[in-house]
Design a protein that fits this description.
elongated, Rossmann fold, about 20% strand, Nonspecific Lipid-transfer Protein, Chain A, CFA/CMAS, about 40% helix, alpha/beta
């Protein structure tokens, strides 16, 4: 069977060795960097149409084993898939009407794995979002995450005494940075019970309980009382869904005072219609990593914000920053696999190894993007008090 498969694979000239467990092997090119060991002989048929979701599923279901650096594994898997299937894209994704129960379940699936697992590979403040590398060659992950938190606060022009709403506050890193360094009071919400518990512990340890209130709350349950001077949402709107996007941005609009700023930081689709990335990669992410996640295109996000009365005043792409962030996360996890195996199941660990390395590769290849979109809720008459330049952000 391996000999028959070699006819279609050998022309690819990849640094890959394909072997049968306890049997023969086939080198697809000189000096293989990765070995793919077939544990289930039936998988050989699937390798004739090796979509990325099929390859990922075979790995997490232990139908095959891979040996070699995980970044090399992902790159070679992509070349294998592209060589046999071409660079086709997936069909337009369906639109899911997200409800509270569905979203709570999806968030728990992804975020309530184990705080100790996340602690293995995140920075000390456990910031689980794209970092900001002012010096791409020398910034550590910890420094780049501090850079990102400060970049957000400076864009929001936070001032002492202001009230900040943090939608999707995670483990509270941004809330603590804003309260400690900018003198604001923060109200943050999350749907993750484990995130909330640890975030509250960190707030108490750092003496910030009087400045920060965090709650387990759905964004749809926020009162629309214009109670906040500024609003920030980081890594949240990917979970909202296309069908709810308009309502989501209306919620942000309703929370902020006239003249206030709203920052939306989130992953965006490559394609305007929001269809997933090619050859099954998006399908794998949706099935095993972010259930019900949907990525809007930048133009869709801006249109929805504008329809709800928010004036977009600044947009910044951080795509390469996120590729570097994910490379750090993946490297950190790979260095601590034995510790990770004691915290999560084998299947979960296999999913996360592919997810982190695969997303690092995907952002590097421009399969998706990530944007910070800053908007203002104009004062009556259309005025606002924003500076006329960006100089204050960088001074």
């Amino acid at each position: 069977m391996l000999t028959q498969l070699s006819e279609s694979l050998s022309k690819l000239k990849l640094p890959l060795r394909v072997s049968l467990a306890g049997g023969p092997s086939l080198d697809l090119g000189p000096d293989p960097r990765v070995t793919l060991e077939i544990l289930d002989p039936l998988l050989l048929n699937d390798l004739r149409q090796p979509s990325l979701d099929k390859l990922g599923e075979a790995f997490i279901d232990q139908r095959m084993e891979v040996r070699g650096p995980i970044m090399d594994v992902v790159e070679i898997a992509d070349h294998l898939s592209m060589g046999l299937l071409g660079d086709n894209s997936e069909p337009v994704c369906s639109r899911t009407t997200h409800d509270k129960a569905m979203d709570a379940e999806a968030i728990a699936y992804h975020y309530d794995i184990s705080n100790d697992f996340y602690r293995l590979w995140l920075d000390p403040e456990m910031v689980y979002s794209c970092a900001y590398f002012r010096d791409p060659l020398h910034d550590s992950l910890a420094q780049a995450q501090i850079n990102k938190l400060d970049h957000l606060c400076r864009k929001l022009r936070l001032k002492p005494g202001e009230r900040l709403l943090d939608v999707g506050c995670g483990w509270g890193g941004l809330a603590r940075h804003a309260a400690r360094h900018y003198g604001v009071s923060v109200y943050g919400i999350t749907l993750s019970k484990e995130q909330l518990e640890l975030a509250r512990e960190k707030n108490a340890e750092q003496g910030l309980e009087d400045s920060i209130e965090l709650q387990l709350q759905d964004y749809r349950d926020l009162p629309g009382d214009q109670a906040f001077d500024k609003v920030v949402s980081v890594g949240m709107f990917e979970h909202v869904g296309h069908a709810n996007l308009q309502h989501y941005f209306k919620m942000l609009y309703d929370q902020v005072k006239p003249g206030g700023l709203v920052m939306n930081h989130g992953i965006t689709a490559k394609y305007v219609d929001g269809r997933p990335v090619s050859r099954g990669a998006g399908t794998f992410i949706g099935r095993y990593v972010f259930p019900h996640g949907e990525l809007p295109h930048l133009s869709t996000a801006i249109a929805s914000m504008s329809e709800e009365g928010l004036e977009v005043v600044d947009v910044e792409s951080l795509r390469l920053h996120y590729a570097r962030t994910l490379e750090h996360w993946s490297t950190n996890l790979e260095a601590r696999l034995e510790e990770a195996r004691a915290l999560v199941s084998d299947k979960t660990l296999r999913i996360w190894r592919i997810y982190l390395a695969g997303c690092a590769y995907g952002f590097r290849k421009n399969w998706m993007n990530i944007h910070q979109i800053l908007a203002v809720k104009p004062l009556p008459g259309g005025q606002h008090h924003l500076p006329w330049t960006r100089d204050d952000i960088y001074s």
